[in-house]
């Protein structure tokens, strides 16, 4: 008889945890859109087009693949929009997974976010900022790591002071980032069509490999779900914010890749190690390399700030649900921000930066460290949509995924393929990330797992 209880009538962990002891809906749609756009348009758009061009074979396939990547990401955003509108929470994915599969799996996800996914992403973005900042003003032997550590400390401090400091900074950083992309697009369209390129692509397209690169470049859009409880009118507006943000990103990606093709040709894009820098150098001369370094540094800083904002929300939700970790679940009311969670996240990111300082390539180490664990849990979030449709059919859903179950199935299959690829093509750092996830399972043995209806005050 116990199994027949409708879970929608039972108080769930961190469900709409708003009010005097938790987050309140204080953010506008522009702030959440700035987080989504800023975290997606990272440095990938300045790196991966060369890899995509080398595997695409033709210009048509090259551009269509970027369109397909945008459409697949929008499908994922539609799935997240249903979950976030039905179950808005500062915990985001953590809340969806806990609701669908229980607190133990939810704990493993929150542990992965704190120790691998979000802190690893924060470290790699900080390293990327450091790499390009060092090109402008070098600080010595460990210049990149010093810049990276300074970025983490500064962004954490801004977000710790007040949520509006963090989201306000995000808004302006995103405006600078998008403005820089428009500058690259304009340069590519005005410089004239490429003549003969010195490098020819293979001529054979590998759609699967191409999609891996493209979807990684679109990655990060799911982070908007973590602000669903802080968005004014979030249950009604989160779908429009997520999908609208990705439509804008898709248009920008199509335009910038068309600009690359026009200026350099497919072979020129495929043969370039720094496609945006080559385009800008052709358009404005040697000063273009400095401009691109500034743009990539701003893009990395923008994504790092968004990562800091959303990552701490999961840790906050974890602290609310496990008594031994209650200190992580304290909401800093004076700043409307999860203060302790931000500090814990920064401390782990700084440890990863310290480890990356002694690695051959800190950025690559961080990518390999995070990828398999990230795609595993994104797949589980997709599955949770099916589980919650069956388990809680009467829950209010202001937005429902169209063409259900086809679109959620496409999202799950895409996530599974990228999980496979991240395991098959990454190095030993990926095994370290998986090992840290396993350590969370061991830690779970020593924690008291509260009943599903119990939430820490």
Automatic annotation (TrEMBL):
Keyword NADP: no
Region named Disordered: 1-23
Record membrane topology: Multi-pass membrane protein
Keyword Cell wall biogenesis/degradation on entry: no
Keyword field: Membrane, Transmembrane, Transmembrane helix
Subcellular location: Membrane
Biased composition, class Polar residues, residue ranges: 1-11
A cellular-component GO term for this protein: membrane
Molecular function per GO: L-amino acid transmembrane transporter activity
InterPro entries found in the cross-reference section: AA/rel_permease1, AminoAcid_Transporter
Main location: membrane
Stated name of the protein: Amino acid permease
Organism this protein belongs to: Allosphingosinicella humi
């Amino acid at each position: 008889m116990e199994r027949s209880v409708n879970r929608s009538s039972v108080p769930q962990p961190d469900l709409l945890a708003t009010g005097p002891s938790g987050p309140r809906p204080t953010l506008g749609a522009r702030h959440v859109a700035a987080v989504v756009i800023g975290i997606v348009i990272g440095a990938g758009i300045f790196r991966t087009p060369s890899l995509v061009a080398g595997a695409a074979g033709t210009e048509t396939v090259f551009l269509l693949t970027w369109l397909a990547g945008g459409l697949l990401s929008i499908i994922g955003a539609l799935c997240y929009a249903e979950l976030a509108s039905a179950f808005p929470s500062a915990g985001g994915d953590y809340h969806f997974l806990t609701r669908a599969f229980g607190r133990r799996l939810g704990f493993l996800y929150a542990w992965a976010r704190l120790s691998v996914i979000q802190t690893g992403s924060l470290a790699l973005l900080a390293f990327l900022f450091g790499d390009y900042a060092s090109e402008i003003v070098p600080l010595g032997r460990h210049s990149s790591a010093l810049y990276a550590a300074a970025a983490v400390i500064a962004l954490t401090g801004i977000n710790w002071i007040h949520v509006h400091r963090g989201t306000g900074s995000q808004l302006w950083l995103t405006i600078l980032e998008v403005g820089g992309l428009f500058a690259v697009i304009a340069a590519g369209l005005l410089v004239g069509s490429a003549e003969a390129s010195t490098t020819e692509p293979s001529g054979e397209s590998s759609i699967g490999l191409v999609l891996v690169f493209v979807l990684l470049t679109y990655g990060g859009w799911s982070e908007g779900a973590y602000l669903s409880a802080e968005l004014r009118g979030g249950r009604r507006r989160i779908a429009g914010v997520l999908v609208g943000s990705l439509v804008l990103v898709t248009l920008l990606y199509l335009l910038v890749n068309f600009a690359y093709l026009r200026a350099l040709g497919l072979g020129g894009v495929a043969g370039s190690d720094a496609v945006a820098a080559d385009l800008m150098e052709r358009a404005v001369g040697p000063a273009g390399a400095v401009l691109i370094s500034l743009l990539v540094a701003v893009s990395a800083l923008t994504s790092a700030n968004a990562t800091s904002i959303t990552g701490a929300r999961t840790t906050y939700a974890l602290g609310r649900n496990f008594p031994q970790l209650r200190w992580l679940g304290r909401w800093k009311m004076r700043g409307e921000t999860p203060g302790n969670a931000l500090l814990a996240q920064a401390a782990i990111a700084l440890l990863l930066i310290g480890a990356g300082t002694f690695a051959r390539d800190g950025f690559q180490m961080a990518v390999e460290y995070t990828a398999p664990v990230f795609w595993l849990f994104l797949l589980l979030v997709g599955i949770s949509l099916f589980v919650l449709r069956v388990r809680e059919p009467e829950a209010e859903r202001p937005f429902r995924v169209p063409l259900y179950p086809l679109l959620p199935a496409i999202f799950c299959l895409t996530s599974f393929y990228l999980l496979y690829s991240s395991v098959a093509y990454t190095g030993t750092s990926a095994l370290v990330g998986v090992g840290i996830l396993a350590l969370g399972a061991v830690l779970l043995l020593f924690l008291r797992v509260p009943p599903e209806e119990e939430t820490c005050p």
